[in-house]
């Protein structure tokens, strides 16, 4: 999954609150498996101008991304959500920004206000992203937001999170709620099953082991299970094993297994 955060850095955000907003982003990131082969994270900030702070081509490890998030500067200025959306589309969700077309693509817009350039421009710029398959969520903070603008941006009306203040965002369960929503959307996107290799299985990472009627049932189980990234299926025994890992990350656990087919899950 490619996950982008569009972060409000306008003057309505106090410097202390801005630090807490960055901490919140990092708590959300903690729920992802960030690596070169798994989730990629990018961040764009916006105020009077928009800036790409972290691209999908940046070093994609949890520690590197979280460190970069904390180092994002506070800029001040007006609230130009539309410019942030333009920058996100051009420099993150693009070939030059490192976007992967074989992964789910999700954007979370975080703001405490309404765009200075008007709701219609925000809606139009968001539509370009949505038309290209990017799923947009919005997180509104405080009383200065414009609910109709947030709803005009998001891919579905219930993809809006509301907090009365930055302080209300700080309990870790709030970050978990947001992260799980992003992950759930990715898993319900179009899934592609890749039979990687026959006569092999990935061992030591099984989260569910069950006899199924066929490999299709096994694949559907994997899609529905929040921790499943790959699965082994043995046609003779009809044993389905869901794994919370992938072959590339655990080559030592990828072994010969007569009759078994190893499959990986990808989302588009």
From TrEMBL:
It comes from the Eukaryota. Residues 183-267 form the Apple domain. Residues 2-178 form the VWFA domain. Pfam families: PAN_1, VWA. InterPro entries: ECM_Assembly_Org (IPR050525), Pan_app (IPR003609), VWF_A (IPR002035), vWFA_dom_sf (IPR036465). Gene3D superfamilies: Hepatocyte Growth Factor (3.50.4.10), von Willebrand factor, type A domain (3.40.50.410). PANTHER family: COLLAGEN ALPHA (PTHR24020), PH DOMAIN-CONTAINING PROTEIN (PTHR24020:SF20). This is Matrilin-4. The gene is Matn4.
């Amino acid at each position: 999954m490619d996950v982008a955060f569009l972060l409000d850095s306008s003057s309505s955000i106090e410097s202390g609150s801005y630090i807490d907003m960055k901490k919140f982003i990092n708590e959300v990131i903690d729920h992802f498996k960030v690596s070169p082969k798994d989730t990629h994270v990018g961040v764009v900030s916006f105020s009077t101008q928009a800036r790409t702070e972290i691209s999908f081509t940046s070093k994609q490890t949890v520690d590197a991304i979280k460190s970069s998030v904390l180092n994002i500067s506070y800029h001040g200025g007006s609230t130009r959500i539309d410019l942030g959306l333009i920058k996100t589309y051009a420099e993150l969700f693009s070939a030059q920004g490192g976007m992967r077309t074989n992964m789910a693509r999700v954007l979370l817009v975080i703001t405490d206000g309404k765009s200075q350039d008007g709701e219609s421009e925000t809606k139009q710029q968001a539509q370009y992203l949505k038309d290209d398959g990017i799923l947009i969520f919005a997180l509104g903070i405080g009383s200065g937001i414009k609910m109709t603008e947030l709803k005009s941006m998001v891919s579905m009306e219930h993809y809006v999170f509301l907090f009365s203040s930055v302080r209300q965002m700080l309990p870790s369960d709030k970050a978990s709620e947001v992260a799980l929503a992003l992950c759930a959307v990715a898993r319900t996107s179009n899934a592609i099953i890749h039979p990687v290799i026959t006569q092999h299985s990935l061992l030591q990472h099984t989260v569910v082991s069950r006899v199924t009627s066929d490999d299709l049932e096994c694949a559907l189980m994997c899609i529905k299970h929040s921790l499943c990234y790959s699965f082994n299926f043995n046609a003779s025994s009809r044993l389905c094993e869901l794994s919370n890992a992938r072959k590339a990350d655990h080559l030592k656990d990828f072994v010969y297994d007569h009759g078994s087919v190893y499959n990986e899950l990808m989302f588009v």
